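Figure 6 in text form: structure in, sequence out.
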């Protein structure tokens, strides 16, 4: 009789536990997880800009939010066989963004990029190099679900592909990529590449009209 009473009370306790919001007792016991979707992610991007014989504007945007729009001058000269090895660099800048989903767009632009100095009677070169690093500083996820863990960021490395440029003496370039934030506990998570380095070089032999 006592055994039946204990069994009855055990069932009541289990039922009570299972009725609690967010209770995943069996998942915890048997290792099965129901990871929640991210409802907000706050992340930082550290940008380091460098270049040779260049002047213009850097612009960086996340989901149409402008995080940086600054003037740059890289007042050193270098030959066109030197792909930014003699570049000078600005201080590293840190931008913070918050999104409410697991993806966002990031756009890098170089605007009115001109030669800092130009000699009409020789070969001239201008060069830019950019480095980005990203890290997650906070996140939230669905109530009643298992913690998906700190998001893993991927897609930043695609900023290396800066092919959309127009102009010559004055050049405008724009690249847009999709950043994806994947659960660090997911079985098939996307491998993160935390930084991107890009070099863009323009050389002109003789006078530009």
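Output sequence:
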């Amino acid at each position: 009789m006592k055994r039946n009473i204990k069994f009855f009370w055990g069932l009541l306790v289990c039922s009570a536990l299972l009725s609690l919001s967010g209770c995943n007792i069996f998942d915890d016991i048997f290792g099965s997880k129901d990871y929640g979707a991210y409802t907000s992610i706050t992340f930082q991007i550290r940008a380091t800009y460098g270049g040779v014989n260049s002047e213009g504007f850097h612009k960086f945007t996340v989901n149409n939010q402008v995080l940086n729009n600054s003037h740059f001058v890289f007042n050193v000269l270098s030959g066109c066989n030197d792909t930014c090895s003699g570049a000078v660099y600005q201080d590293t800048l840190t931008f913070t963004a918050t999104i409410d989903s697991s993806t966002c767009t990031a756009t890098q632009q170089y605007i009115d990029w001109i030669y800092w100095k130009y000699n009409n009677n020789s070969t001239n070169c201008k060069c830019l190099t950019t480095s980005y690093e990203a890290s997650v500083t906070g996140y939230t996820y669905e109530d009643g679900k298992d913690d998906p863990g700190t998001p893993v960021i991927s897609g930043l490395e695609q900023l290396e592909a800066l092919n959309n440029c127009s102009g010559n003496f004055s050049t405008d370039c724009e690249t847009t990529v999709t950043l994806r934030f994947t659960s660090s506990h997911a079985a098939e998570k996307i491998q993160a590449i935390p930084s991107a380095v890009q070099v863009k070089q323009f050389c002109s032999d003789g006078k530009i009209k």
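Caption detail: Residues 34-205 form one domain.
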